[in-house]
């Protein structure tokens, strides 16, 4: 039963294409992306700068709209939903980790982690946030603001926030990009430890070879196309 569950795709795309108008011509950022990610996988999206990696991640999350094509997330065709419904779906299913951390500067570490729990009306938000921050090694920094934390500490808060709602799928855009190599390795270990504990599917955009090698599969983009 478990093996069958693991093989079910939690995310798939069909002919996903993104084009933008740049004055007198149309620029194709992504072209005909067919992709499947199974539950429980850790997938790295790799490729040169400008190959369309971050654009693809935004489309997978429904944060951006494609020119054509489909994205199915947990068996739901997300672009048949309106913006509010996509946001509600993200709140239930997705967690995010960004290169620039994206913490709210006016909130403390524990308040940043509590926020998605409160938005989803989850009970025991403070207890859950405290437990996760302790899990990522920040038990002494609960009431510090982002500006009082190092880059590595801020990313730990961001990871705790991403796992707070126990998402089925975690999307990360260059999660070690703003960190030194030693701190980056610590963050990688932490992400995969939490992944094992929570059983979350990971899709990671990265230039970090150490991080990409830790994933079960690598997907390479070049000039907006999948390279087999």
Produce the secondary structure layout.
Elements: H1 2-6, E1 9-22, E2 25-38, E3 42-46, H2 53-60, E4 68-73, E5 76-77, H3 83-93, E6 94-98, H4 109-119, H5 125-135, H6 151-163, E7 169-173, H7 181-198, E8 201-205, H8 209-214, E9 217-222, E10 225-227
Parallel strand pairs: 3-8, 3-9, 6-7, 7-8
Antiparallel strand pairs: 1-2, 1-4, 4-5, 9-10
Helix pairs in contact: 4-5, 4-6, 5-6, 6-7
Provide a concise account of the structure shown.
The chain is of the alpha/beta class and 228 residues long. Helices cover 36% and strands 29% of the residues.
What's the order of the H and E elements?
HEEEHEEHEHHHEHEHEE
Structural class: alpha/beta
Amino-to-carboxy terminus distance? 31 Å
| Share in helix | 25-40%
Provide a count of the helices. Answer: 8
Shape descriptor reads: globular
Mind summarizing the main beta sheet? 6 strands, mixed
Mean pLDDT, all residues: 90
Number of strands: 10
Strand content: 25-35%
Going across the biggest sheet, name each strand in turn: 6-7-8-3-9-10
Question: Which parts are unreliable, with pLDDT below 50 for 5 consecutive residues or more?
Answer: 1-6
Oligomer: single chain
Radius of gyration: 18 Å
């Amino acid at each position: 039963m478990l093996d069958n569950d693991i093989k079910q795709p939690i995310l798939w795309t069909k002919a996903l294409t993104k084009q933008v108008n740049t004055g007198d011509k149309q620029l194709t950022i992504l072209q005909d992306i067919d992709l499947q990610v199974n539950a429980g996988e850790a997938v790295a999206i790799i490729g040169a700068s400008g190959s369309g990696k971050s654009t693809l991640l935004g489309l997978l999350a429904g944060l951006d709209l494609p020119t054509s094509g489909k994205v199915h997330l947990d068996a739901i065709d997300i672009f048949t939903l309106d913006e509010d419904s996509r946001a509600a779906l993200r709140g239930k299913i997705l967690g995010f980790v960004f290169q620039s951390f994206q913490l709210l500067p006016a909130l403390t570490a524990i308040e940043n982690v509590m926020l998605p729990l409160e938005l989803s009306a989850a009970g025991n938000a403070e207890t859950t946030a405290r437990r996760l921050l302790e899990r990522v090694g920040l038990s002494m920094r609960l009431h510090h603001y982002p500006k009082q934390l190092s880059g590595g500490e801020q990313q730990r808060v961001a990871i705790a926030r991403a796992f707070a709602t126990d998402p089925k799928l975690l999307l990360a855009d260059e999660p070690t990009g703003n960190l030194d190599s030693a701190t980056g390795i610590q963050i990688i270990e932490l992400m995969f430890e939490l992944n094992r504990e929570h059983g979350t599917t990971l899709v990671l955009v990265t230039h970090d070879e150490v991080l990409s090698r830790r994933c079960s599969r690598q997907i390479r983009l070049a000039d907006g196309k999948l390279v087999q």
